[in-house]
Amino acid sequence: MTNNESFEHLREKVMNSKEIFNGKIIKVTHDDVLLPNGNVSKREVVHHNGAVAIIAVHEEHLYFVRQYRTPTGEVILEIPAGKVEENEAPDETAKKELKEEIGAVSSDIRKLYEFYTAPGFASELIHLYIAEDIRLEDQALENDEFLDIVKIPLSSLKENLEKGYFRDAKTIIAVQYILSNL
After folding, report:
1. Residues 68-110: tens digit of each pLDDT
2. DSSP string, 153-175
3. Where are the domains of the chain?
4. What confidence tier does 2 reach under pLDDT thresholds 50, 70, 90?
5. Rounded distance, CA 75 to CA 148, Å?
6. What's the Cα-to-Cα distance from 97 to each of 12, 48, 153, rounded to whole Å?
7. Across the strands, what pairs with 51?
8. Which InterPro entries does the UniProt record give (predicted)?
9. In the chain, N or C terminus with fewer CB closer than 10 Å?
10. Domain 51-180 adopts which CATH fold?
11. Measured in Å, how far apart are the chain's first and last C-alpha atoms?
């Protein structure tokens, strides 16, 4: 079953879309939509090019980055990730972000899943990859990135998850994936 087969009776049709904001990372629109029952409703939509997230495994450890996130006001422990640039393939973004954030390259990187972060109001689709057989080199951070590299033994992941050390959804999905495939 696919997400688009035989579900036409659930689709909404965008009748009018007004751009409210267009920034470096997101665009926001107010949309008037025609509902399946013929009524009209309003939607606020955050448009995003998507992102990649990478499960980086090396010598029985998983690699994370610790960085401050302004929207949460917290320092968050996350798997390496980054925004897919316009006209950039997610596979290329994954390789680029792995090198930028933890200074790693991999001859064995593959896509696992795609998932929406908040489909009720945002179009952001995350492409989750796993990189094994990584080779560590130097980080290549962008000028506005400040983060620490953290490596956690695979044997400690469950305990760290249960203690609530991971508060980021993509990271929790990644850790659950690793725990279910150990």
Report:
1. 999 999 999 999 999 999 999 999 999 999 999 999 999 999 9
2. EGGGHHHHHHTT----HHHHHHH
3. 8-48, 51-180
4. low
5. 10
6. 35, 17, 22
7. 83, 126
8. NUDIX_hydrolase-like_dom_sf, NUDIX_hydrolase_dom
9. N
10. Nucleoside Triphosphate Pyrophosphohydrolase (3.90.79)
11. 28
